Amino acid sequence: VNDIDRVEAHIDANFDRFLTEVQDFCRIPSIGGDDARMAEAERWLVDKYQRMGMHVRVLEVADSHPFVLGEEPGPPRTVLIWNHYDIANFTNPVVYPENPSERGPFSGDIVDGKLYARGSTDDKGTLLARVHAVEAWKAVMGHSPVGVKFLTVGKRTVAGPDWGHFLQTYHPLLGADCCIWEAGAKDEQERQVITLGHKGYLYVELIVHGTERTWPSRYTIFPNPAWRLTWLLGRLKAPDERVLIPNFYSEVRPLSEVSKRAIYDRLADDIRVLLEEAGLQSAVLGVSGRAAQVRLYTEPTLAICGLQAGLPGERMDLVLPHEARAKLEFRLVPEQDPLDILHALQTYLRDIGCDDVEVRVLGHSAPYAVEPDTWLPQLVMRAAERAYPDGAVFAPMAIGFGDRHQFHHWLHAPIVGFAVGYAGYKIETNEEHIRVEDYRQQTKWVARILAELAHS
Amino acid sequence: MRVTADWLSSRLARLGFATESIDRTGSFPLIWARRTGASSRRIVCFDHYEIADHATGAPPAELLTGLEPSISQNRLSCRGVADDKGTLLARLQAVEALLATHAELPCEVAFLLEGKHQVSDPTLPPYVERLVKPLRPDLVLWETGPKDERERPTVSLGAKGFLYTEIVAPGATVQLPSRLNIFPNPAWHLTLALASLKDRDERVLVDGFYDAVRPFSAEEERLLEQIDTSDLARTLEQSELGGFVLGERGREVVHRLFGEPSVTICALESGDTGPDVRVAIPRRARAKVEFRLVADQEPFDILDKVRAHFGQLGFEGLQINVMGDSTPYASPVTDPFIHAVQRAAVRVYGQPMVVKPNSTGMSQKYLFRPAPTAGIGVEYWGSHAEQPDEHIRLEDYRQGIKQVIATLQEAAAV
Lengths: 456, 414
Description:
Chain A is of the alpha/beta class. Chain A contains 13 helices and 19 strands.
């Protein structure tokens, strides 16, 4: 019996206990920004890492909850494992049901092989599968096959702290040969997805000013900032979805042939499921199949996330708004740089006579992607071919944004990502869940990855 | 509102008016009071007893300030005094003064006093039809007629109309993160639809929008030349705005305000309106859009045309809900009873009135067609109606009462 088989046997033998730990951790409602609950989750983690015999540091980070760094020494290589212990609360705020018979957001209950809790997939289950893989190796062999650094972050906002500043301070503690990130669930065909990067974003608020106060709407002689905003937005994007800002697309890295083959030939078409869940008839521009995947994974896009002018509500207010605001999100792909895009936007506004429009930057991060034919993606895929009978696929980029580019910039280590999820995991709802068999598979997969890293 | 209605009813009854206070569903009591006079001429005074707050843009808390009346420096300050309680009371007290000194009123006078829930009260039309129409009034005295910056009395005759709509672009039934960029974004849908309604030169792009617009007559044009807009020019100077919407000057300002139909976005609301970053596709996008109309545009004809416009351009799935409407009215400018109002003003103010053939504000003058409607009042250009420092000047009030007395006498003599 070789080592990996013994490790897998250990995982099976201890599986119920592992799940109980996942339940415990998921039941802590550690919503980013809630200091008391985040501190509770932090203590839980510190305790867990210490009981495993890891060296633990708690890193104080400005504008953030503390980060927990758990270190397991082990030559010949070191892997940095990135996760977060806060619950994402940025798209759908947590809602506690009024009716106590309905499932709450942090039940942690296991029903029909599914463990329910907000944060179970994103990111507590994903984190603990990795922790349990290391634990299994230590139980069986007395040590991990490679050095491991668990960097477990507690974000207070969607963007997190100033990563550049964090890394400048702490990068000497984080040195590693490679990095494993979150993001990447099983697809519709039950194939495990390995994400090779993420999009970037630039979130800005445009503010058009008008009269100093709100006037009655009968004063049709005054300029109306809501109209100016409307026209301005109409010049940012064409009805065919193409962004009209000059140079917006100039730095987009074309997909390599390897990427195209590795990715699109194998990605499932899960657009229909998404549409059905959203109660929508069709996707934008009617795209489907390959075209939808291309748009989802490779196109930089521009979304209006918010509009505001005049008085909200149901009243018939006869007013001329004194200002109008739009929140815009540019979602970026390699090698678009958010600050270059900001500059292009400002230049364009000036060129179309809108230089009086205020632009406030509310957040940004750069995109990152590793090529699929390089060593780390290939190693992780090799391990997946053993762990997943239904196979695994590369996704060129997680469609969300992330912070991999900053870590890559400071650590010079390639990064791949994956998570314990599947197509029906209902992220960021009270129905968010993981399937316990997915958890078992992923724990075993991570155990294999650690072994492969030792031998590569 | 009930207390105010009762106060007015008993006041009118004491003056010998046959008074009814009519309860209505969806609005506050309507007061209808009549008293015959020496001549067969009939004048209807139309006023409202609620304090207007639909065009302030102020938060509700601010609307509750300035409600305590006070007199100082020859001014009476109180929310509602300029719009419209001062003007209403001046009419009551004109009648009171006439009855104190004469056996009867010079002509028949009726009061229709409105307490409305919202601008352009949808419950009013049947009452005007039933109560006012059979009377065949010779003249309707309307509210609003401030002295202008050159201290000249003004009267406004017609009124713009409007169609107030809520335009909604629906989206997904669940909140979707913005990373799912393959989903239609209702905020874009709405924005592009709105952008198609009007050009940057302020021209409304809806097919047929201007078809029914009746140009001003030579007489109306002559009257427009008298209108003073220096208050707006000063506001412009004091602001950081580069100019009026298209850089208008002089007559162009008057034409845009009084003669041009328009479309205004009064509100936009979609998705993330807080201070944070919320990366989601909005569930829906909503705009409140006001079409302000001139004679002879009809609000529901304009609605059909707007629907056709969106249909033609392929903006499907937009919901257009009508929140309010009012038909524009070009009240006759050469009517003998309008001339009676002007003669009365010369007697009281010692100078001719500025006659505005149209008014820019919203009112339901069209309900009283074909009677000429004359908007006169006790306020002045600086009264700040609908603001916390709303006030009237005491001398204007005294003159306002006399203007009503003289108007009734001049009308009786027509």
